[in-house]
Amino acid sequence: MRPVMADENENPPKDTPPAGGNPADEQGAADPEKAGDKTSPAADAQGGAGGGKAASGDTPPANGGAAGGGGGGANNTPLSTALNPQIVQAVGTTNHAVLNGAGPGANGIAYQKVAQAAAYAVQDSTDYMRNIMSMASATTGVALQKMLVEKTTDPYADIIKAATQAVTDAQQTFTNVGTASSGVVKDFDSMA
Predict the structure, then answer these.
(1) How many structural domains comprise the chain?
(2) The whole model's pTM is what?
(3) Which residues of the chain have pLDDT under 50?
(4) 34 and 102 co-located in one domain
(5) What confidence tens digit (pLDDT) does each residue in 83-96 have?
(6) In terms of domains, do 22 and 113 share one?
(7) CB 46, CB 54: distance < 8 Å
(8) Buried-state track 147-178, b at ≥16 Cβ within 10 A, e below 16
């Protein structure tokens, strides 16, 4: 048999409330005088932050009770003052940085697209000039061969002249396309 300690028989266990007492009284939370008028989360849930404390058996307070009219539920406090001002400022700063940075970023992408289109135009005019020069060379070779075989320049001299003029025109087209493309890119850069 286990020896019985003197305190074991005299003091009731702390888990069970003393006869006729309130377990909250033992902790000092139910009596507003003892608790220093502090409300616990459970009291807030029952009576709202400022809506009073409802004990069991009491009628709920007129200003909100469990519905939370006094502050625990819906209230008329603006969201900007209900939140931490540092968080509101951080979100505002982030939004400002993102939105102001979007313009230059979008302009940069648009500028790259315009520059790329201008480069394609110059590349296409280069291909055109190369193709014209290839055809002019072939045409001139065939015309010279015919001139030697037939021992006449008519009409082959005119064909060689037309082929040479086509090369000159292709070179002029290349220069015009290059100048126009460069102007478009420079003008877009100044607008952006």
Answers:
(1) 2
(2) 0.45
(3) 23-72
(4) no
(5) 777 887 888 887 77
(6) no
(7) yes
(8) beeeeeeeebeebbeebeeebeebeeebeebe
